[in-house]
């Protein structure tokens, strides 16, 4: 592990972009639809609250990782609770990354099928997507980080594309009065936003590879979380003031519907331009889950890791063969959400508490 870290290190600057690309994905396209079902016009508040929840967990991660600065998530579990229970927890961690990655790929395929390639078989789109993701995931983390830095520049294009939507009619009354949905509904909406922001847990695997002084890591990941929170809130807000509640209920991907109505003499179907660019951020989140799932197996040799990436990519392909009916995807999403809460929120919090109570840290080899 030490040899790999000396040849596979990243900077805090690269960590910033790794987290951004890990969190941004296909969920954003349908998030306004999901949030408004409970929070209505206060959906943008739900997203801000979700960002606060993510920040709390980042602080928990930071406190835990400070105690084990050279260990990854699945190594910390065995260090704190012992080999047997640690391996048992690692099974759930591995399953979570694989299932979330599978769900992200399924939703990716569904969007491409619906908006770009309606006549192309889903399995063919899945094969093309996963082949590209596997090709990059088998690379060193520093190579992945460099690609993510370049890919983040596309966000500027996405933002510029969204600015064009401000020339269409807007109704701010759709979000007024602020807070009218009630605290309960706003919190229910924040649950959907929180699930859309998943990907920040990759920090538990990126942290040991940071080459620089790790004192500024919390600041770096906090800025990344602030960027993601504002990015999501911005897109949800412009969608909420563009469509009524009844309209959003009938739209699967409201953001694409918003851009679909924009047309210029030299540019038509802005929504397809947006989606074509958005394919890269959707793919980067899958790459992150492939990386984390393969690293969670704690393989010693580099070639073993690459074989694991290919194998896990094959498993993701099999997962995407699940029938893509809405009822099946909804049920799949529900169970994956439960597992994600355990792996992303519950287990790290318990590990931190136990490590403090039992005075466990990386140098406590005898405990």
UniProtKB/TrEMBL annotation:
It is a multi-pass membrane protein. GO terms for biological process: spore germination. Signal peptide: none annotated. It is found in: Membrane. InterPro entries: Spore_GerAB. Keywords: Germination, Membrane, Transmembrane, Transmembrane helix, Transport. This is Spore germination protein (Amino acid permease). The chain crosses the membrane at residues 12-31, 43-64, 84-109, 115-138, 147-167, 194-211, 223-243, 272-292, 304-323, 335-357. Pfam families: Spore_permease. PANTHER family: SPORE GERMINATION PROTEIN A2 (PTHR34975:SF2). GO terms for cellular component: membrane. Its main location: membrane. Belongs to the amino acid-polyamine-organocation (APC) superfamily. Spore germination protein (SGP) (TC 2.A.3.9) family.
């Amino acid at each position: 592990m030490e040899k790999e870290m000396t040849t596979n290190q990243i900077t805090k600057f690269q960590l910033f972009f790794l987290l951004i690309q890990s969190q941004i994905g296909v969920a954003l396209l349908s998030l306004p639809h999901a949030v408004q079902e409970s929070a209505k016009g206060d959906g943008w508040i739900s997203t801000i609250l979700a960002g606060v929840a993510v920040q709390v967990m980042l602080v928990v991660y930071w406190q835990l990782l400070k105690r084990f600065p050279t260990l990854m998530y699945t190594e910390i579990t065995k260090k704190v609770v012992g080999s047997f229970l640690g391996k048992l927890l690692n099974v759930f961690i591995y399953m979570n990354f694989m299932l979330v990655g599978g769900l992200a790929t399924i939703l990716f395929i569904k969007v491409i099928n619906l908006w770009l390639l309606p006549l192309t078989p889903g399995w063919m789109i899945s094969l093309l997507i996963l082949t590209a993701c596997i090709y990059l995931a088998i690379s060193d983390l520093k190579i992945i980080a460099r690609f993510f830095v370049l890919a983040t520049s596309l966000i500027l294009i996405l933002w510029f594309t969204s600015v064009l939507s401000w020339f269409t009619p807007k109704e701010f009354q759709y979000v007024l009065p602020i807070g009218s949905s009630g605290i309960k509904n706003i919190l229910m909406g924040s649950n959907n936003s929180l699930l859309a922001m998943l990907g920040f847990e990759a920090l538990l695997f990126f942290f040991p590879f940071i080459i620089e002084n790790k004192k500024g890591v919390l600041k770096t990941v906090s800025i990344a979380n602030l960027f993601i929170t504002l990015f999501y809130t911005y897109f949800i807000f412009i969608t909420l003031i563009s469509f009524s509640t009844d309209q959003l209920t009938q739209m699967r991907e409201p953001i694409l519907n918003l851009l679909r109505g924009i047309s210029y003499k030299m540019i038509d179907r802005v929504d397809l331009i947006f989606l074509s660019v958005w394919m890269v951020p959707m793919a980067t989140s899958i790459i992150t889950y492939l990386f984390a799932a393969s690293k969670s197996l704690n393989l010693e040799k580099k070639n073993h890791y690459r074989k694991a990436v290919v194998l896990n990519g094959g498993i993701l392909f099999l997962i995407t063969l699940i029938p893509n009916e809405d009822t099946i995807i909804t049920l799949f999403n529900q169970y994956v959400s439960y597992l994600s809460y355990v792996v992303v929120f519950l287990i790290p919090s318990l590990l931190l508490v136990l490590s403090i109570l039992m005075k466990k840290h990386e140098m406590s080899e005898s405990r």
